[in-house]
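Dear H.,

Thanks for agreeing to be a second pair of eyes. The structure we're designing against is below in token form, covering all 227 positions.
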């Protein structure tokens, strides 16, 4: 069976759902993860998923399940080279986005804790620490988002699903929160210690950034570990 023939088995309108992995054709019709020929609202039946399965948290062992059947070897054809493949291989070697996402998460969580300790203890060292964490965490968002966009382009062809839409929107919200807070605290060193209405706004913005960041991370987890 040739690749263009496999594309006809897209799982739509009662058709069987076939996928290709390492030049082997599999029938995934009976898998609940391939309802209507779509997996995780991103991958579609009838396609070669070798690169995506290789980078997924699960491996090819899933293709040995009882509800997935081996069909045939893919008939060799001359297929134009994937121009993204060399970049995809480089990305899969270093995993920049999974590495970078830990920086804003860890630093901003830590900073919020320090700010909370400042309000409980009155110790100014905690407030200063939370300030440095805010600035550092905010700066780390930029390379994190950039690496995420590269990953989205390489691995998902900029497919705009609900998960990616959530990540994009809430990443923007996170920057809208943390960047002005950082600038304000730099320009007004006594912003928190003054105990003014501006202190209240700053504190609310800081703590609101935590659930926003957590929601971004949650959606990232849905990509890695789909339900």
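And this is the sequence the design step returned. I haven't edited it by hand at all.
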């Amino acid at each position: 069976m040739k690749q263009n023939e496999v594309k006809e088995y897209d799982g739509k309108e009662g058709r069987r759902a076939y996928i290709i992995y390492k030049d082997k054709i599999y029938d995934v019709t009976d898998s609940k993860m391939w309802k209507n020929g779509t997996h995780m609202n991103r991958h579609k039946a009838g396609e070669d998923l070798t690169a995506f399965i290789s980078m997924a948290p699960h491996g090819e062992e899933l293709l040995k399940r009882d509800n997935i059947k081996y069909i045939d070897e893919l008939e060799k054809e001359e297929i134009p080279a994937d121009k993204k493949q060399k970049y995809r291989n480089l990305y899969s070697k270093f995993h920049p986005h999974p590495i970078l996402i830990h920086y804003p998460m860890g630093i901003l969580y830590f900073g919020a804790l320090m700010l909370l300790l400042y309000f409980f203890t009155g110790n100014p060292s905690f407030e200063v620490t939370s300030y440095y964490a805010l600035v550092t965490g905010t700066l780390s968002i930029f390379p994190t988002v950039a690496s995420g966009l590269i990953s989205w382009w390489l691995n998902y062809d900029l497919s705009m699903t609900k998960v990616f839409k959530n990540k994009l929107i809430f990443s923007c919200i996170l920057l809208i929160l943390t960047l002005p807070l950082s600038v304000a605290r730099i320009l007004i060193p006594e912003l928190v210690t003054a105990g003014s209405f501006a202190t209240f706004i700053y504190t609310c913005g800081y703590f609101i950034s935590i659930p926003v960041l957590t929601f971004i991370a949650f959606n990232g987890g849905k990509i890695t570990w789909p339900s």
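Two observations from my side: The chain has a mean pLDDT of 88. The chain has two domains: 3-73, 85-224.

Warmly,
E.
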